[in-house]
Amino acid sequence: MKIKSSRGATPTAPPTANRTRRVLGLALLLVIACAFPFLVSDYRIFQLTLVLAYAIALLGLNILTGYNGQISLGHGAFYAIGAYVAAILMDKYGVPYWLTLPAAGVVCLAVGFLFGLPALRLEGLYLALATFALGVSLPQLLKYKHLEYWTGGVQGIVILKPNPPFGLPINQDQWLYFFTLTITLAMFVLGWNLLRGRVGRALVAIRDRPIAAEAMGVNSAIYKSLAFGVSAMYTGIAGALGAIAVQFVAPDSFTIFLSLTLLIGVVIGGLGSISGAVYGAFFIQFIPNVADQISKAAPWAIYGVFLIGFMYMMPEGVAGAIRIGSARMKRWKEKKIPRYQIP
Q: What is residue 158's three-state secondary structure?
């Protein structure tokens, strides 16, 4: 038996080795994430907690827009509904903070699914305008005088930050960070399984080839409504976590700008990418602060420059840029390593 070199053969790493590397990389990231609360100030912990909450919301919006192709300019409304469900349950009924999350998820799942049913008749810009109307109208509805007993009206609702359970030797900010991190991991695992399975393939098929998907037996109406409901559920849970972290909800905190910010985060992170939700969350949380530090007079002008720069250098988002860079690095390594094949 002879071993002959072949320039045409392209070696591939064993699947087990690739899987092991991914698991080790994720484990390292988890260790770093768990170490952060002990290395930074309480304010930074608060910011990182919001990053985790935003990551859940962006993953939910990505399910709808990135994977299913439905544009939403009003997802801040679902974020607000989740936040108010948590705040009302904690303030009026004394419900434990951790029980408000499934309640917010169920309410937003129902609202999103019901909103998705009439939205089936709308596509593209028309659907975007319908969701835009939802995002614009909800803050005004929260100020309605007949709902003030529940929503607090313009004054909003103040809630208390939870204490660490079981006498853990950490402060409130650290505990809330770890609690949010646990929920984030659970939601991302759920999203990964959903999008990598039959449902995810159906959503992508409807986005790319709707007629072919219908011909193959995919019920577009059900899957589109389901995508709206699941997306709203994710965003509502994120809103509940955000309300618990901020300890306050008010109508003016959930203007249409929040919806636009969530859409920006999805595009910056990378459409159709699970990891892109994390990158987008870091962008929408920290870039406005960086812009404010650069220029106190015109922070939003600096923010716009950052936004244009990201879109120019990374048209497929941060996740897309990392994927392209990784592929180029792999090809470069293959050119440097001799390749052999056994005939």
A: strand
